[in-house]
Write a structure and sequence with these properties.
4 helices; Thrombin, subunit H; 6 strands; about 150 residues; 6-stranded antiparallel barrel
Length: about 150
């Protein structure tokens, strides 16, 4: 696509976004962020079944992480959540006496839970998630890790 066409399309998007209420603008921003995240995803998702505690609007919630990657996770949980809201998470790897603490934003919700995009990738200090975490901790797909 030529630069002029791209600029025109971006201006159309901006015009439409300006006419949305603040809540819909926030949802649009999160949607665009999640699309960009998907396009940049270089890591694979690791299926898992890990206990997770998270704080949402001052309320502590216990749930399970169903898949994990350096930039985000899918949390199996019931309830009503708002896309774009912040969460603080602790993902437990108790079998290895480890836990991961991170913050992120809810980028998607479906009937099974929420997708969270982390503010900082879990592997900022290592090139790959598997170098950051014990691989065995993440390969117990469908089995809870003993406490």
């Amino acid at each position: 696509m030529k630069n002029g066409a791209v600029a025109d399309r971006l201006e159309q998007i901006a015009d439409l976004a300006r006419n949305l209420d603040a809540k819909k603008q926030k949802q649009l921003l999160c949607l665009l962020d999640s699309w960009q995240h998907e396009e940049q995803r270089g890591e694979f998702r690791i299926p898992c079944f890990l206990a997770v505690d998270f704080v949402y609007k001052g309320r502590g919630i216990r749930a399970f992480c169903k898949n994990l990657e350096p930039a985000g996770a899918f949390i199996e949980v019931r309830g009503s959540f708002n896309i774009g809201d912040d969460v603080c998470l602790v993902i437990y790897l108790s079998q290895w006496d480890m836990h991961l603490k991170t913050k992120g934003k809810i980028v998607r919700q479906d009937a099974h839970g929420i997708a969270v995009s982390f503010d900082k990738a879990l592997n900022t200090a290592a090139p790959r998630l598997s170098e950051t975490l014990p691989v065995e901790a993440l390969s117990d797909c469908g089995k809870p890790i003993p406490a």
